[in-house]
Amino acid sequence: MNWKIELARILKNLNAFKGSRPLLDTPTLLMVKSICRDEINEDIKSYLTKKLKELNYEIVDDIDEIEEFVEGIHNVLRGEDTYLDFLGFEKVKEGFLNIGCECDYVIGKKGNLMVGLTLYYDKIRKNPKFIEAVALLKEIE
User: Any bridge partners for residue 59, and if so which?
Assistant: First the structure.
């Protein structure tokens, strides 16, 4: 599986591929920011969950797997000897909620690829709907 193409498939499924920009591109980690052009008539978590499941991703709710995902991101970004914030996705969500945005995230996996999707937008204007995608290729054990 070409994992970067897999992330592109996710962005296309979110109607967010056009105009997407990589924030970070390494051999095992890709972070992309874009704008979701879909009309969303459900809560963000349900929408993101549905979109990942359409592409045969398993939704990750297990705290140990989420910690492993966040640890992998931190290892790529800062090396292995750094304090890890295992609640990083929750803190991002809380930050956007505090400034008046709707925000939620979903983490999914397929094979040795883990993906975190965060979507947020202004509560009043509803647009643009920003999407941040993080894909981490895990080593096969």
Answer: 108
